[in-house]
Amino acid sequence: MKAVSPVVVIVGCGRLGSCLATLLDREGCAVRLVDRDAAAFSLLPEHLAGACFEGDPLELTVLKRAGIRGAEWMIATTSSDNTNSVLALVGQRVFGTANVVARVLDPHRAESYGRLGIRTVCPTILVASSLLRLIEEAGRA
Q1: 131 in a structural domain
Q2: SS3 for 102?
Q3: What CATH number is associated with residue 59?
Q4: Which residues, 6+ apart, have CB-to-CB distance to 38 below 8 Å?
Q5: Burial of 4 (0-12, 13-18, 19+ CB in 10 A)
Q6: Domain count of the fold of the chain
Q7: d(CA 125, CA 118)
Q8: Angle at Cα 94 formed by Cα 91 and Cα 97, nearest 5°?
Q9: pLDDT by residue, tens only, the chain of 141 residues
Q10: Structural domain contains residue 98
Q11: Is the residue at 2 inside a domain?
Q12: Element (H or E) spanning 52, and its range?
């Protein structure tokens, strides 16, 4: 029997959200995207099987329409650290989503949000760490 594909709600369909949606779709996940601006969905490939929902993600009805109640994952990838942290808390505490992640650009905020129990990914820290590794590897060559 084939395993059921996880439902992943991605809030924010910019470069990161659209790229993640494409990768997850290829892996067979049921992707649902939410963005304030319907034009953002033009970043998605035509073949994407996921569903798109236009609206303010801070409005609970928009998240409900996108299927947050049945989602295994909610990932907030908007351009706003504050919006992403609020969405993560709403996903966890209002909808009981098991796995919630907020993209946070500011390393200090990522640390603070982590203390609140919000799982974060900080591209700033990830890129800085990668660059440090490259410099260290070049120094050993």
Answers
A1: yes
A2: strand
A3: 3.40.50.720
A4: 52, 54
A5: exposed
A6: 1
A7: 16
A8: 40
A9: 456 689 999 999 999 999 999 999 999 999 999 999 999 999 999 999 999 999 999 999 999 999 999 999 999 999 999 999 999 999 999 999 999 999 999 999 999 999 988 999 999 999 999 999 999 999 886
A10: yes
A11: no
A12: strand 51-54
What angle, 0 to 180 degrees and rounded to 10, lies between the N-to-C axes of helices 107-115 and 123-140? 120
What's the CA gap between 44 and 52, in Å, rounded?
10
Distance CA 102, CA 32 (A): 16
The one-letter amino acid at 18: S
| Assigned token pair, 69 | 């109640």
Find the domain containing 66 and state its range. 7-140
- d(C-alpha 43, C-alpha 8), whole Å: 18
Name the amino acid, one letter, at 49.
Answer: A
Segment (H or E) for 31: strand 30-35
Contacts of 95 (CB under 8 A, 6+ apart): 63, 68, 69, 71, 74
pTM of the model: 0.92
Residues β-bridged to residue 53:
34
Q: Is residue 104 part of a domain?
A: yes
In three-state secondary structure terms, 81 is: helix
Place of tokens 């992943």: 8
